Amino acid sequence: MNTLLFRLLAVATAVSLLSGCFIRVNTAPGGVVEIQSGNFPTCQSDTECEDIPVVDFLFDETFVAVADEGYDFVRWKQASLHFYGCSTNPAARLYTAPLEDSTLAVFLEREDVTFLTPVFRSTGPDVDYSSGFECNDITSEALGDNWVSYVNIFEADGSTYVGGYAVEGGAPNSGNISALTLNEGGTDQFLRQLNVFSNYDSEYNGQLQHERGQFVEVNVYQEYRLGAEAAGTYVFTFDAKLPGEGALTAASQAIAFAKVLDPENDYQPTEPPVTTDTGTLGTTWETRSIEITLTSEMAGMLLQFGFANTATNYDPTGIIYDNVSFKIVSEG
Which domains does the chain have, with CATH numbers? Predict the structure, then answer.
């Protein structure tokens, strides 16, 4: 009897929690979301669709992300606690049965709406990247998602090049170079962000750079080998601000950059890198963007876009980044 009463109470509680709850499906360019049961219409590409009410504990629907030709499904977007996100399975089953392990019921205990938004990526020759870092593993030793890092060393005059080294294992998630961070986001940045700062333990040729007064240039970036068909104009967009602790000071420098390196010419840039000075940021989030043009003659070369800082004497260098995007805006 006690078990039956407990179950009845659980059902009654679930019904009361679901009053006024709904699922909101938003799609991005590159695909649609189909509802497997056919009870609701397909949510078309780049559309905010009709809200789907969740009226009782019998709700059980499977939402399927279907990519258009020329696109792949990447994952379900994670943006805040009331997003169903990060899963790479294009079929998302959302149900409310109170006696089962219901993810949807947990979401709806916190909010009256659960968002479902697919992320699609072009499979064409153009470079197509976006990340809000919400799905990166904050417990990992590396940032993941193909972020890499390289460190250059300069003498105390700031211009005489000493040498450089790649960081093994990709860009780290640690106390040096870069780290995933929490609690720095605003309305549009959500839970996780990327903090980029100096390598304070940098050691080259048996010497500690910060201790000797040498300058350490840290680069954290995405890298793509270009094909001739990738030609076009691209925009690199991101949000950024200074962190609450360890923020960059006037003694150090920081930029966001996009550039193309030629492996046949000692990895020198084909043109001066396109940059924006992130050292001018304050503690309020700003959206910045830079534009770069890629040509068919750059086939086989390396595109890099990301963030860099230069510092010495253990000066603070932290800058927080989020909502990183690199997209083509015109072909040619």
Answer: 2-122 (no CATH), 129-331 (2.60.120.260)
In the Cβ-directed half-sphere of 260, how many Cα atoms lie within 13 Å?
A: 22
Hey, what are 298's tokens?
């750059």
- Residue-wise pLDDT for 164-217, tens only, equals 999 999 999 999 999 999 989 998 998 999 999 999 999 999 999 999 999 999
The three-state secondary structure class of 239 is strand
Residues 136-161: pLDDT tens digits? 999 999 999 999 999 999 999 999 99
Residues 182, 204: Cα–Cα separation, whole Å: 32
Helices and strands per DSSP (H, E), number in the chain = 3, 23
Range 147-175 burial, b when 16+ CB lie within 10 A, else e: bbbbbbbbeeeeeeeeeeeebeebbbbee
Beta strand 21-25 with 113-116 is parallel
Does residue 77 contact residue 117 with C-beta atoms inside 8 Å?
yes
Tens-digit pLDDT profile for residues 52-72? 998 777 889 999 999 999 999
Q: Which of 79, 107, 92 has its CA nearest to residue 34?
A: 92
- pTM recorded for the entire structure: 0.84
User: 């990519």: which residue's tokens?
Assistant: 67
